[in-house]
Amino acid sequence: MDDIRVVEGSEAVALAIKACRPHVISAFPISPQTHIVEGLAKMVADGDIDAEYVRVESEFSAASVLAGASAAGSRSYTASSSQGLLLMTEVLYASAGMRLPFVMTGVNRSISAPINIQVDHQDSMSLRDAGLIQFYVESVQEAYDMHLAAFKIAEDPNIMLPVMVCMDGWVLTHSYERVQFVDQQAVDDFLPPFAPEHYLDPAAPKTWGSYAESDVMMEFKYAIHKAMTDGKPRIREILRELSAMTGRDNNGLIETYRTDGADIILVALGSVTGTVKDAIDELRDAGRKVGLLKIRCYRPFPHEEIWQAVKDANVIAVMDASFSMGSEGSIGLDLKAKLFGRPQAPMVVDFVAGLGGREINARTIRRLVVRAEEIHRLGLVLPEAQWVNLDASIVS
Amino acid sequence: MKLTKGAVVEGGTSLNYKTGNWRDQRPEIDQKVCNQCGKCKDVCPDDAVHRNNELYEIDYDFCKGCGICAYECKPEAIKLLPEGK
Amino acid sequence: MTVKKETPKESLFVSGHRACHGCGMALGARHILEATGDDVIVVSPTGCLETFTSPYGFSPWRVPWIHHVFENAPAVASGVVAALRAQGRDHTRVVAIGGDGGTFDIGFGALSGMLERGDDVLYICVDNGAYMNTGGQRSAATPPWAATTTAPAGRQSMGKAEMKKDLPEIVAAHGIPYVATASIAYLGDLKKKVKKAMTFHGPRYIQIDTPCPSVWSFPSHLTLEIGRLGVNSGLVPLFEKENGTITATRKIKRKVPVSDYLDKQKRYRHLFDSEQGQFEIEKIQALADTNIEKYGLLSV
Ligand SMILES: Cc1ncc(C[n+]2csc(CCOP(=O)(O)OP(=O)(O)O)c2C)c(N)n1
Ligand code: SF4
Ligand SMILES: [Mg+2]
After folding, report:
1. What was the ipTM of the complex prediction?
2. Architecture category of domain C24-295 in CATH
3. Contact (CB<8Å) A223/B10
């Protein structure tokens, strides 16, 4: 009775959301996210989902509708990309602070200007400080699976934070893959209805969105951080339950691929990790000791797992698809911050690759590995991140 | 006291915050002149006038002394006195 | 004489909030809730009302109340409505109460979206004609020739040089069932309108003139008086519009010249210091007269 079908990535996500029985869905179009909310709209139009579908006039309102619905005690969902995600920024910070556990899909796409609709991670990475839990997925199947877990993680009484499942635009949203679906009864057993401790209710009137003075502001901010860091064991547990339900290995905040005895470990997230795995197989066949560390859960940052996975390597080559202008790539910054000062920590080399949809193939990865080895061998201390496949000669 | 999750608080708790010490003038109702119209209660931005035992009374725990009640009182039953005198 | 103190149980908006002395908005908020009753959820944007009612741990709201950010109260309200519908909580109604900046300006897109969707929200704008919470900067609701901190009077300026955005008309153009204007100077009228609005379903809009003693700069005991002068000069027309048609106007019994309204507020003081100012006062009088004509405000 396995339900296995070849579906578009966006449809797989819409079907996962349907299985989670949301009360409220808000929607605003932006490529490459649009197929997801269109899919949900059709399900609502056909009566296949019993949800209120709110067609808002902006992404700012899309996120705001979720905030109101969530505070009123309803499970709620939206999806967006790129400019839309950035437009939501203020709402997402406030929602995390108010501990409103809605779920959204962040379909990754680059940020203007220049305008470009291809994939990179600048959009969701710009929201990494907001207090959202963020997952990044490699495949359509993983996108489906992680959306099933997202509400359970968000709504955990000790977590209560918005969750964003990030998936690469086009590469995952618009490609057709074989997906194995979980039956509804199993999802219902896994994910009980949303039952928050408080919700907007005239029978028990509460005040939401208070003003905090400096005597408590730091504590409220620390509480968000603590919910994330203390929440890690619970997230691991939920991912184990997810694995038990799906029969797939969704375990862990990170995933390692052939890292045993590796001298060089590539660190990446999102769909590129599939390409990296293939490249690693070739490199291993050629006798190079290379492995991959894929970050599945980016916030909270799983630095304990990462340390365990990389501590015996010589060099970490980070593949960043987003960049903090004037500084470094996002993951590079995180890794350097968390590894710095640890005795015998491997060297971290930050590569910026794939911005605006620039192709990353096996050759790119091989060259990156060679370069990382060389940097390590020569003991170079690089003041800047390495921009991969950049034609510096045309930059004026 | 532990902070609440998301700073959600009980409604009606501002009654624990007394604003009476904001006052620099003090309205006093002359009950002999008061005609019980209730205007003072209606117009108070601080909900600091209440009817007790058939009389309108000012709750000095909260009255900020804005003077609206005295100004609006038709029979001029409310006098504003400097606070602390 | 000592009497047993009665706690203000009947009030849904209790004492201990931190509004300035004589704040028209605080007065309005209590009366709005008296009219809506307690089976409501209130949404407010950032602004004075939010700031003076939500210091952590000290809330005067005895109904569920939520503030999120400055520009999204209509959308948050839409989300609450959607959740109530999904949960079958049909009896509970949603009321948004926000300042003019949050309504005319930064939240305008969200407001228009909510109105166009037909969501069952009573949106009440408590209009004090400027961004008071940040010290009184010009908004689209600031009336012409008022001085504000960002459109001050100066050697080459008479204050705000533009008209007040006619939001009730814009809102009505969305084809919503009920639009009204009210003033805290006429509390009975205000409550009657809120009660009437509650009998309709779909989006409804009430704009309430809420004089602000602190920034308009008048003595705090004059809040209602200033409100009355605004109405009786014709500058603040009070009307109701049902399904696009004006169904009622509050008649002016004794018309007052606009200068009686202006000269009590420091925000207009510069108009009285120069010839140019006198000229602008005449223009303001013309605006009042246009309102009187347009809405038929004088009882004949
Ligand atoms: C996005 C954003 N911009 C600016 C502010 C600063 N701000 C907070 S309240 C406010 C003024 C509110 O004015 P209004 O809506 O008229 O309400 P009032 O305070 O006058 O009652 C401003 C500018 C903010 N909080 N958020
Ligand atoms: S500034 Fe004006 S509107 Fe704001 S609380 Fe003070 S009196 Fe009220
Ligand atoms: Mg204002």
Report:
1. 0.97
2. 3-Layer(aba) Sandwich (3.40)
3. no
